[in-house]
Amino acid sequence: MKQYALMDRLVEAGNGYLQVSAVRKHSISNYTLMKYLKTRGMARTAHGVYATADAWPDDYYLLALRNSRIVFSHESALYLHGLMEREPAATTVTVPEGYNSTHINRQGIRVIHSKPEWYALGVTKVKTAYGNEVPVYDRERTICDMIRCRKDVEVQTFRTAMREYMSGEKKKLGNLMRYAKELGIEENVRIYTEVML
Question: Whole-prediction pTM value?
Answer without folding.
Answer: 0.87
